[in-house]
Design brief:
Length: about 260
């Protein structure tokens, strides 16, 4: 018989908060440790992109959506921080479930800082990030002897009130680059990189819904990345750049599809 943990409203010892990576999408790509913690969670604060099948692992828990998606209603980060602290003072096992890996573009540092300030115990449970799932979808290694010895994970997005950052410098210097949360800005990203001297014919790929049955893969040279708006991308996607993707681009352009913008599903 499943019995939910009694809230700790009248107890002085707070619970523990777990920052858990849900992985890139497919529920069976969460780690064994992450799944085990979800099974005993009392309350789960989850991102918008976490799949129902993953949430189902937390069968006994209260589930609260605190997701952030570009162009949609989002929960203010300071409010999320406060809710985690408040929940830890009431429940035994609190989970903050984040898409991908909590420590990569997940604002985990802000939540950890709030938990530390409140003297709340926490633990980070790593997850598979989208770049690795996208690499698997393409069947292309992000590193390769003699071609790519380093990889940069970047985002071109800047939070409200935050200073601009030179993300393009990092991409231009990398052998392989993966740009998170950039599909909606593909035209601007391509123009900026070309202006910074990245060759127009640099092989590029966009992978949408990596690890899921509805995954889609697009390959193109950098100069055609602006056409991403025509692809109807609505799921989470990453942009990938580098010579390691040359073979994928060549293979796609040899198939009977649109010559300059090739897609596979």
């Amino acid at each position: 018989m499943n019995v939910r943990q009694t809230p700790r409203a009248m107890r002085s010892i707070p619970g523990k908060v777990y920052l858990v990576g849900a992985g890139p999408g497919a529920p069976d790509l969460i780690t064994l440790r992450g799944a085990e913690i979800l099974k005993r969670a009392d309350i789960v604060f989850h991102d918008a992109l976490v799949r129902p099948g993953t949430l189902a692992l937390a069968a006994r828990a209260e589930k609260i959506a605190v997701g952030k998606r570009c162009g949609r209603h989002s929960t203010v980060q300071q409010f999320i921080n406060k809710r985690l602290v408040d929940a830890a003072r009431k429940y035994h096992t609190v989970v903050r479930l984040k898409g991908g890996d909590p420590m990569l573009f997940g604002r985990a540092h802000e939540e950890i800082a709030a938990l530390r300030a409140a003297d709340i115990e926490y633990e980070v449970v790593p997850g598979v990030t989208a770049a690795l799932a996208a690499s698997a979808e393409l069947g292309v290694s992000l590193t390769r002897r003699g071609i790519a010895r380093n990889v940069a994970f970047v985002t071109a997005r800047v939070g409200a009130g935050k200073a601009e950052h030179d993300w393009a410098k990092n991409v231009a210097a990398a052998d392989t680059a993966v740009i998170y949360m950039g599909a909606g800005q593909a035209a601007e990203i391509a123009a900026t990189l070309i202006a910074r001297g990245v060759p127009r014919d640099t092989p590029a790929a966009i992978v949408e819904n990596a690890s899921l049955a509805e995954a889609r893969r697009f390959t193109m040279p950098l100069c055609e990345l602006a056409r991403a708006a025509e692809l109807g991308i609505s799921g989470p996607a990453v942009i990938m750049l580098g010579e390691v993707f040359a073979s994928a681009l060549l293979a796609a352009t040899e198939e009977p599809t649109t010559p300059s913008l090739s897609a596979t599903a």
